[in-house]
C-alpha cells in the first residue's frame, strides 16, 4: 500500500492541524502524510502554519462563489488532484453539502469539543460550562450533513473543576484533542475503523 493521504480542513488557529502534521512527521500516523490544507479564511493563522510546515494549501473565499455546492465542487477537484484518502475537519466552521459528504462517505471525520450528542454546534465549551455539567470532553465522529450528528468514533471525558473558566477548560480540551485526533487518524491509516449503521468498531 502507498502513502495514505490526508486533507485537513480548518478555518482558524490550526492547533489540531499542527498536531496532525507533527504526528505524521514523527511517524506516529504510520504511512500517512498531510497532503493538503483546505481553508476558507485566507488570513487565518492555520495558513501560516501550513506555510512553515511546507504543506500545500487550497485557500478560497466562499463569497467568490455562487453557492456552497459551487465551492465544494472545486474543493473536490483539489482533493482528487492530491489523491486524498481521508478528509479531516479540524475547526472548519462550515456545514458541508452532499457534494463532499457523499464523495467522501466513510472517509470524512470531525473533532468536536464536547461529549456528543451534548452541546453540538458553535461554542460547545461555553455551552457546557453554562449548563453546569461536571464532565465534558472531546468527540471524534464521522461527518454527515447534520451539525455534529454523525456516528461517534472516539470520545475522551474531561472533568470540569469548580471555578473552571471557558479559557482554562479550552486549554484542557485542546491538550486532549492534540492526543486523540492523531491517534484516531492513525487507526484510519491502518484500515482499522469499521462502520455499520451508527456503530463504529476499531479492529486489531
Ligand atoms: C477545536 O476545539 C475543535 O474541537 C473545534 O474547533 C477547534 C479548532 O481548534 N472543532 P484549532 O483551530 O485546531 O486550534
UniProtKB/TrEMBL annotation:
N(1)-(5-phospho-beta-D-ribosyl)glycinamide binds at residues 14-16. It holds the Pfam family Formyl_trans_N. (6R)-10-formyltetrahydrofolate binds at residues 68, 93-96, 110. It comes from the Bacteria. InterPro entries: Formyl_transf_N (IPR002376), Formyl_transf_N_sf (IPR036477), GART (IPR004607), GART_AS (IPR001555). Pathway: Purine metabolism; IMP biosynthesis via de novo pathway; N(2)-formyl-N(1)-(5-phospho-D-ribosyl)glycinamide from N(1)-(5-phospho-D-ribosyl)glycinamide (10-formyl THF route): step 1/1. Keywords: Purine biosynthesis, Transferase. Residues 5-185 form the Formyl transferase N-terminal domain. Its EC number is 2.1.2.2. The active site is at residue 112. It catalyses: N(1)-(5-phospho-beta-D-ribosyl)glycinamide + (6R)-10-formyltetrahydrofolate = N(2)-formyl-N(1)-(5-phospho-beta-D-ribosyl)glycinamide + (6S)-5,6,7,8-tetrahydrofolate + H(+). The record marks 148 as: Raises pKa of active site His. PANTHER family: PHOSPHORIBOSYLGLYCINAMIDE FORMYLTRANSFERASE. NCBIfam families: PurN. Belongs to the GART family. Catalyzes the transfer of a formyl group from 10-formyltetrahydrofolate to 5-phospho-ribosyl-glycinamide (GAR), producing 5-phospho-ribosyl-N-formylglycinamide (FGAR) and tetrahydrofolate. HAMAP family: PurN. This is Phosphoribosylglycinamide formyltransferase. The gene is purN.
Amino acid at each position: 500500500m502507498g502513502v495514505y493521504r490526508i486533507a485537513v480542513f480548518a478555518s482558524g488557529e490550526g492547533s489540531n492541524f499542527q498536531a496532525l502534521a507533527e504526528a505524521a512527521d514523527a511517524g506516529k500516523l504510520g504511512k500517512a502524510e498531510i497532503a493538503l490544507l483546505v481553508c476558507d479564511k485566507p488570513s487565518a493563522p492555520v495558513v501560516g502554519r501550513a506555510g512553515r510546515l511546507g504543506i500545500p494549501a487550497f485557500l478560497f473565499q466562499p463569497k467568490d462563489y455562487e453557492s456552497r455546492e459551487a465551492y465544494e465542487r472545486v474543493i473536490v477537484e483539489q482533493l482528487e488532484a492530491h489523491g486524498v484518502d481521508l478528509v479531516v475537519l479540524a475547526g472548519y466552521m462550515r456545514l458541508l453539502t452532499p457534494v463532499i459528504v457523499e464523495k467522501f462517505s466513510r472517509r470524512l471525520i470531525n473533532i468536536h469539543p464536547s461529549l456528543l450528542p451534548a452541546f453540538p454546534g458553535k461554542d460547545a465549551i461555553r455551552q457546557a460550562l453554562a449548563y453546569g455539567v461536571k464532565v465534558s470532553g472531546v468527540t471524534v465522529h464521522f461527518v454527515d450533513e447534520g451539525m455534529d450528528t454523525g456516528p461517534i468514533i472516539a470520545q475522551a471525558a474531561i472533568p470540569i473543576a469548580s471555578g473552571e473558566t471557558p479559557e482554562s477548560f479550552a486549554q484542557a480540551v485542546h491538550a486532549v484533542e492534540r492526543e486523540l485526533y492523531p491517534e484516531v487518524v492513525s487507526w484510519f491509516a491502518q484500515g482499522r475503523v469499521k462502520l455499520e449503521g451508527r456503530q463504529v468498531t476499531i479492529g486489531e
